[in-house]
Amino acid sequence: MTASRFSRRAAFGAAVFLAGAIGAQGAMAQNANCIDTIAGLPEASRFVGVASRVHVAQDLREASLFTVFVPTNAAIDAVRPALVPILFPVSGEGGAAVDPVLGPAAVNAHILQGRFTSAALAPGATVTVPSRAGTPITLSNNGGKVTLTANGVTATVVRADIPCANGVIHVIDHSLVR
Description:
Layout (H helix, E strand, L loop, with lengths): L2 H27 L4 H6 L5 H9 L2 H4 L6 E6 L1 H5 L6 H4 L14 H7 L2 E3 L12 E5 L5 E7 L2 E6 L2 E12 L2 E6 L6
């Protein structure tokens, strides 16, 4: 193979690789980041509000990959009444503020580093992974029904695999704090 022929092949290979990379970026750009995607879920407004107030929302805009287990507003309302005003106060509740230590920990207890779809957990499988708060979360797939257990609370994924540019979102029926 001559040097010019090798150069043409190398240039062609680089062009194909670059086109693939640009195409992948273009596809990702079509999706919003995790927090903006969650903000589009009406049933998740409380989680978004708290994530914003404790500055975790900015993290969910980053290029890192995340899996976010988002409790519904009803799930947050079911948290022990003494904890709701500290961890998940409704915005504008007479100036209620989120606890500066417990609030971020509560939000981060629902987030994993990395992108994990429901298909990644085989039927019958169970795995335990740490949340961003350091809390172990046990994920189980029982015949296609995915459940999470953390802090003595079990939640069921009610809406799985909502894609976002930097991860995936699963809506759950219980908050992972007690």
